[in-house]
């Protein structure tokens, strides 16, 4: 974790703060890389995870909150450990990951999360033809991320909301650690 904190500080153009003298290892350092309003909460959360942690392995806590265009507040969390990996390797997960691994479907999910519900406005927002739209919509419905609300009206499900934003947050985290495209491939972006 210390390396992550140091990397985040370096990427933000700051020097890493001196290591804290209290707490279990790198937790205080990592929490200082978070926005000030989240530092205490992050430190407490990491310390709680560490206190309950036994042996080697990984634990990941994902939390989220979203206010829909209609004003509904949706919240979710997931506590994951590497012990659950084999249980996750199921067709339902693969279907969901396949659904989210498409730029067109991500555009549809984004439009739905912003309150667009009608077929025509969703097609326009995602830049899809009618055939493309229904092809991608069927995949999103089959994975449980989207459901039909009425004639030519669709909505993102709670599972869809949490999966979509968690997927994007995870993608952002993964990409944050990669060098820019020009450095990776030796060319221009």
Spatial strand sequence of the major β-sheet: 1-2
What oligomerization state is this entry in? single chain
Strand content: 5-15%
> In percent, how helical is the residue content?
40-55%
The CATH superfamily name of the domain at 87-164 is Winged helix-like DNA-binding domain superfamily/Winged helix DNA-binding domain
As a whole number of angstroms, the C-alpha radius of gyration is 20 Å
Number of helices: 10
Give the ordered list of helices and strands.
HHHEEHHHHHEEHH
- End-to-end Cα distance: 30 Å
Number of strands: 4
Question: If you had to describe this structure to a student in words, what would you say it looks like?
Answer:
- With 189 residues, this protein is an alpha+beta fold.
- Among the domains are: 1-53, no CATH class; 87-164, Arc Repressor Mutant, subunit A.
- It contains 10 helices and 4 strands; from the N terminus they run H-H-H-E-E-H-H-H-H-H-E-E-H-H.
- The protein has helices spanning 2-11, 27-31, 36-51, 85-88, 91-100, 103-113, 119-126, 130-142, 158-176, 181-185, and strands at residues 59-67, 73-81, 146-150, 153-156.
- It has a two-stranded antiparallel sheet. Strands 3-4 form a two-stranded antiparallel sheet.
- A hairpin with a 5-residue loop joins strand 1 (59-67) and strand 2.
- The two termini are 30 Å apart.
- Mean pLDDT is 80; it is low at 1-24.
């Amino acid at each position: 974790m210390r390396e992550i904190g140091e990397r985040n500080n370096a990427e933000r153009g700051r020097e890493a703060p001196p290591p804290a003298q209290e707490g279990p290892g790198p937790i205080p350092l990592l929490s200082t890389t978070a926005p000030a309003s989240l530092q205490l909460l992050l430190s407490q959360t990491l310390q709680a995870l560490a206190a309950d942690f036994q042996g080697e392995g990984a634990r990941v806590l994902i939390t989220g909150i979203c206010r829909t265009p209609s004003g509904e507040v949706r919240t979710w969390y997931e506590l994951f450990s590497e012990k659950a990996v084999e249980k996750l390797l199921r067709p339902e997960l693969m279907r969901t990951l396949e659904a989210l691994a498409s730029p067109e479907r991500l555009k549809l999910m984004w439009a739905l999360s912003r309150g667009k519900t009608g077929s025509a406005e969703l097609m326009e927002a995602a830049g899809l033809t009618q055939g493309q739209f229904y092809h991608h919509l069927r995949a999103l419905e089959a994975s449980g991320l989207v459901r039909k609300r009425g004639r030519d009206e669709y909505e993102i499900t709670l599972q869809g909301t949490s999966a979509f934003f968690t997927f994007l947050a995870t993608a952002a985290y993964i990409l944050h650690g990669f060098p820019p495209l020009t450095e990776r491939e030796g060319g221009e972006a």
